[in-house]
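debug: dumping io for the single-chain case to check the tokenizer round-trip. Nothing else runs in this session.
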Amino acid sequence: MANSRENWTSRSGFIIAAVGSAVGLGNIWRFPYVAYENGGGAFLIPYLLALITAGLPLLFLDYAVGHKSSNSPPKAYRALFKGGETLGWWQVCVCIIIGLYYASVLTWAGSYVYFSVGQMWGSDPEGFFFKTYLQTTQSATFDFQFVSHLFWPIVGIWALTLIILYGGVKKGVELSNKIFMPLLFVLFTILVIQSLRLPGAAQGLNAFFTPNWAAMMDYKVWLAAYGHTFFSLSVGFGIMVTYASYLKPKTDLTGSGLIVGFANASTEILAGIGIFAALGFMAHSAGTNVQDVVSGGIGLAFIAFPKIISSLGSGANLFGILFFTSLFVAGISSMVSILEVPIAAMQDKLKWSRKKAVTIVGGGSALVSIILFSSVNAIKLVDIVDHFINNIGIVGGALASIIAIAWFKRDALIALRDHVNRISTIQLGKGWAFTLTVITAMILLVTLSMTVYNLIMKGYDTYDFSMQFIFGWGSVIFCGVIAVLLSKMKDREEK
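debug: decoded output
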């Protein structure tokens, strides 16, 4: 398989694809809110420190693991330490789970491009989103009621994703990112410029950038900075290992990583400027403060922003289309990267053709996703599964890779460092090993421990225990069981 393994056409193709993976749906609405809640302008300091001391070192580790082996996570980690294949399959399973619900949120973004024309959400965007569009069930347990208008859009999302993946690394993943990333940049630049021209924009920017220095004394702010960095860079769950495995033998890994890391950070800060300028306008129009209109996550994207759009008058249609198209474009590139991980892993393990791997892995994921998220449970499942798989699946996978390599296989860490240094302009030294071994590991360990403790003692939000157990803990258990089973299977020999 090594001889026939696909490659990126160029280093720039890899960088664009890596940025496309890092810049996703969550980055656009998540970072501004996280920054605002954790000190505003002051948050940028721990965020940038987290990027330098943990995000980039872990990104370099992922690059080194994937590039040195030219394999997907299971085989790449197996080559480094005993039990490594199980860890690799854990990361693969995490990607499968994320892909299931990510398609759902992508569907909502695509639907809202259409809803933006004439502001179909009316005077009550919250009621429209939860009751009219999603038809969210009031039942505490799983409700099997089907929602027809959610069905066809999610089918379309999966069809587009699979078509891109059928194209392979060069003609599918790389080509789509070369189209989508410049488009995203243009759309988002126009959106930010439009936001900055709105009355009250300065009020929003003041709220976003005014530093709350006292917040920096709170350990939770630092945990939030590190947590978001891992989330936003697509590290710790196999994507960057897989993408690096497609690189040609002599590629500048650290230089590429720095470009990806700071391009992602710049996009997030730009998103913050655009979104808070718009929120400033909303506060100005309502005669209130920004803190009274700001909201995070789903609420920001599908409730607060429609309110802003509706108040824009003649420019509302354009602004709405720009915002939701940006979300959609950012999401589709990330969706492709998420699914590429299990597809590459099955190709490496069972020597499947790309067509077969995409059909079985992608088609199977699509079927489960369509069934679960074309129902009245959609937003509940997205929230529950996302919380568990991000905070346990991703963080746990990243922590396990660091502990296994940096704590117990120092010779492997040195070999990876030497491999990177032979082909890269910026050299990795003792500082890289120290940050991985101490800083990154400790932050991840504290974060994971607190998350698991709180989930066991308090549960998540107000959701029924059965829903949390089946879809939250169930997702985590699924990853563990499947990872063990697949690691026990023998590799199929190439014919």
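debug: round-trip ok. The domain at 11-488 is CATH 1.20.1740 (Amino acid/polyamine transporter I).
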